[in-house]
Amino acid sequence: MAHEERNSHGVGHMLKMTLACIIPFAIILILPFFGVSSKWTTFGAVGLMIFLHVLMMKDHFLSHDKHKGGIK
Questions:
Q1: Over the range 17-49, which residues count as b (16 or more CB within 10 Å of their CB) and which as e?
Q2: Cβ–Cβ contacts within 10 Å for residue 16, how many?
Q3: CA distances from 66 to 3, 15, 54, 70 (A)
């Protein structure tokens, strides 16, 4: 099996993973400079991070099903 076949996600997947982590952390770090600081903002940003990662996991499993021939 070629390396390209094993690593089918490539740069796009890595970019999505990076953005799913950086965006919530940026919210947590930048909003206090604008006077927005509360525990709910932090919980919301962490919730956003979890939500974005769950969406990526869904795409990950769907792409594996396509490669196995399960979903066309």
A1: eeebeeebeebbeeeeeeeeeeeeeeeebeeeb
A2: 16
A3: 18, 21, 19, 6
pLDDT of 16-71, one tens digit each? 888 888 988 888 889 888 888 788 888 988 899 899 888 887 766 666 556 565 55
Please state the pTM of the whole predicted model.
Answer: 0.60
Which own/partner pairs from 57-61 qualify as long-range (CB within 8 Å, at least 24 positions apart)? Answer: 60/9, 60/13
The 3-state DSSP class for residue 4 equals helix
